[in-house]
């Protein structure tokens, strides 16, 4: 079994090594975590992406799932089966048509970052998720892609990783 691993899940319109994932992956590596970012390109159905994530080998002693948009939905929905130690969600596509279900068994170390100007996933969806779990929610003056908030996102992500050892 390997040590600590972060598994990223990219959004519908991005790729496995987009700007946010590259930035966060560098931070994770600097903290001593291995990183993986599966390619979900061409899989437009969130259920197909969830199945791909669930099919990956489970060999980390400490697992953190990190997802953006559709990848946030996939990461959150995978918690029941994968039992991660941490969950980091960026503008998660929860409670939207075509994205069924309520995430179960999300870890206590869950952090959500969302933009007030998100025109794809309403901030109310992130509030609903965070409120029902009592987890930290950071609502920022940014849009869906959160491109103006990378420094803050990085600080929150690094803090989550450090809290998990």
Considering the chains and any ligands shown, give keywords for the structure:
165 residues, alpha/beta, six-stranded parallel sheet, 5 helices, 6 strands, 36% helix, globular, UPF0227/Esterase_YqiA, hydrolase activity
Structure description:
The chain is an alpha/beta fold. The protein contains 5 helices and 6 strands, in the order βαβαβαββαβα. Strands 2-1-3-4-5-6 form a 6-stranded parallel sheet, sandwiched between helices. Helix 1 runs parallel beside helix 5. The model has no long low-confidence stretch (mean pLDDT 96).
Fraction of residues in H or I helices: 25-40%
Largest sheet: 6 strands, parallel
By helix and strand content, what is the structural category? alpha/beta
* Rg on CA atoms, Å: 14 Å
Mean pLDDT comes to 96
- Could you list the spans in which at least 5 consecutive residues all have pLDDT below 50? none
The share of residues in extended strands comes to 15-25%
Q: What order do the strands of the largest sheet run in, or round the barrel if closed? A: 2-1-3-4-5-6
Shape: globular
What is the tally of beta strands? Answer: 6
Q: Counting H and I runs of at least 4 residues, what is the number of helices?
A: 5
Distance between the termini: 17 Å
| Secondary-structure element order, N to C | EHEHEHEEHEH
Question: How would the blueprint of this fold be written?
Answer:
Blueprint: E1 2-9, H1 19-30, E2 34-36, H2 46-55, E3 60-68, H3 70-82, E4 86-90, E5 110-115, H4 123-133, E6 137-140, H5 150-163
Parallel strand pairs: 1-2, 1-3, 3-4, 4-5, 5-6
Helix pairs in contact: 1-5, 2-3
């Amino acid at each position: 079994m390997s040590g600590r691993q972060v598994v990223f899940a990219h959004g519908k319109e991005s790729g496995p090594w987009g700007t946010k994932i590259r930035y966060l992956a560098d931070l994770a590596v600097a903290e001593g975590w291995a990183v993986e970012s599966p390619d979900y390109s061409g899989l437009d159905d969130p259920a197909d992406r969830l199945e791909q994530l669930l099919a990956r080998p489970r060999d980390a002693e400490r697992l953190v799932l990190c997802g953006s948009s559709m990848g946030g939905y996939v990461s959150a929905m995978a918690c029941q089966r994968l039992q991660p130690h941490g969950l980091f969600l960026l503008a998660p596509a929860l409670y939207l048509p075509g994205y069924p279900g309520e995430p179960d068994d999300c870890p206590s170390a869950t952090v959500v970052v969302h933009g007030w100007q998100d025109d794809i996933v309403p901030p109310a969806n992130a509030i609903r998720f965070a409120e029902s779990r009592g987890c930290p929610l950071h609502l920022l003056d940014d849009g869906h892609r959160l491109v103006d908030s990378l420094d803050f996102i990085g600080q929150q992500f690094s803090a989550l990783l450090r809290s998990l050892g």
